[in-house]
Amino acid sequence: MSDDYLESRIPEPTASLLRRARAITPSGSQTLSKAYFAQPWGCPEVPLFIEKADGAWVEDVQGRRYLDYPMALGPIILGHNNPKVTEAIVAQLSKGILFSLPSPLEIAVAEKIVAAVPSAEMVKFLKTGSEACSAAVRLARAVTNRPLVAVGGFHGWHDFYAGLTRRSGGVPEAVRDLTLRFDFNDASSLETLLERHRERVAAILLEPATAEAPANGFLQEVRRLADEHGALLVFDEVVTGLRWSKGGAQEYYGVTPDLTVLGKALGNGMPIAAVTGPADLMRKFDELFVSGTYGGECLSLAAAQAVLRVLEDEPVVEYIWSQGRRLRESFSEAVHRHGLQELVDVTGEPPRVVLSFKEDAVAKSIVGQELAKREVLFNGSFFVSYAHTDNDIELTIAAVDEALGVLAEAVASGDPGSYLEGAVGQPVL
């Protein structure tokens, strides 16, 4: 399908906004995975721009409502426009946004993080998960006086990680060579890497849970290997922090890293991230250049303080696990009922259930298209929030069942692409 044809199928005002966005913004979006080409665009029901959001629902520029599961790629743990978070932001706004000296909020929020996260004794605030991962890598290199980093997951857009992706342009080869990848849930691949580069690996940086749950004993073995080889173990808990438990995945799985990176859910949508760890490691930041104008920006800190208070006072984590478990079990049943086991996997832990399609972009696009028709926003991950109600969950279970039914019919036809009304959504990494 040509772009002209696809654009002709998009209703106004979405079509005009898309033309304007593509003309003035690279990829038409500030975030690659939110870009039009990552969606099955051209199907009239598939939204491309969101106007507003409340609770578990978003509204696009056409005025159509969708039940949100990407939840802004994971940050929205309490729901959009959560009253307690919004009230905290508004109250702080009347006092000021950014000051010329530190705010007491920096201390108060850091103390709450230390109280919640097992590995935390000190906290360094930043704005994004990518930035915080980069800061943790710099700290690990400074502490160990070693150059290499071993990674096992997704860690943002900064040079140390971007050099491993297919969007590695602009990252010098010398920088790319300093980062080494090992396979999640394969401790032997990490051990081989560490043996090959003995006493040169500064940090083992991994997401403790990804689209997969960690295999039994995997994180414990990574901890052992880090200790044996003198590398710092850094948990990238940008996704899992606060979601898996108040103390993150490290608390849930019982494995304590040397350093932890937090982000996403910490601000419920406000831009805030953090590096945390024991004081003897974190004090090394005193000697490093990790500093930014907006590290102590107060609206985000006020939001984080409100989020942490809600997590203390209400059963947010328990609710997310319970509702996510319902989704995962229902999706698995639907995959088997429609005979799609060879094409569709249901993976992840309940706080982030993942429907994956074994690298079949057509299949994923068909499901995304059909879910949009049924008022469900989909990008592969189902981030349940505290705002998703029982009715929302029931709507989702029914919608996914119907969408998988359409996919099964498309596969049986021998020409699944003919079931697509728009483009095939493209991977961005």
Outline of the structure:
This protein has helices at residues 3-8, 14-24, 83-93, 104-116, 129-144, 159-162, 173-176, 187-196, 218-229, 248-253, 279-282, 298-313, 316-337, 361-373, 390-413; strands at 50-54, 57-60, 65-68, 122-126, 148-152, 179-181, 201-206, 232-237, 259-262, 273-277, 345-347, 353-356, 376-377, 381-382.
Describe what this molecule looks like in 3D.
- This protein has 429 residues and is an alpha/beta fold.
- It folds into two domains: 3-80 and 316-419, Aspartate Aminotransferase, domain 1 (Alpha-Beta Complex); 98-296, Aspartate Aminotransferase, domain 2, CATH 3.40.640.10.
- It has helices spanning 3-8, 14-24, 83-93, 104-116, 129-144, 159-162, 173-176, 187-196, 218-229, 248-253, 279-282, 298-313, 316-337, 361-373, 390-413; strands at 50-54, 57-60, 65-68, 122-126, 148-152, 179-181, 201-206, 232-237, 259-262, 273-277, 345-347, 353-356, 376-377, 381-382.
- The protein has a seven-stranded mixed beta sheet, with helices on both faces. Strands 1-2-3-13 form a four-stranded mixed beta sheet. A three-stranded antiparallel beta sheet has the order 11-12-14, covered by helices on one side.
- A hairpin with a 5-residue loop joins strand 11 and strand 12 (353-356).
- The radius of gyration is 22 Å and the shape is globular.
- The two termini are 23 Å apart.
- The model has no long low-confidence stretch (mean pLDDT 97).
- Morphology call: globular
What proportion of the residues form beta strands (DSSP E)? 5-15%
How many β-strand stretches? 14
Q: Strand order of the main beta sheet, please?
A: 4-10-9-8-7-5-6
Low-confidence stretches: none
Mean pLDDT: 97
Number of domains: 2
**Under the CATH scheme, which class of the largest domain?**
Alpha Beta
Spatial gap, N to C terminus: 23 Å
Number of contiguous helices: 15
Largest sheet: 7 strands, mixed
Output the structural class: alpha/beta
* CATH fold category name of the largest domain: Aspartate Aminotransferase, domain 2
As a percent range, the share of helical residues equals 40-55%
**Which sequence of SSEs, written as H and E, runs from N to C?**
HHEEEHHEHEHHEHEHEHEEHHHEEHEEH
CATH H-level homologous superfamily name of the largest domain: Type I PLP-dependent aspartate aminotransferase-like (Major domain)
C-alpha Rg (nearest Å): 22 Å
Query: Which architecture of the largest domain would the CATH scheme give at its second level?
Result: 3-Layer(aba) Sandwich
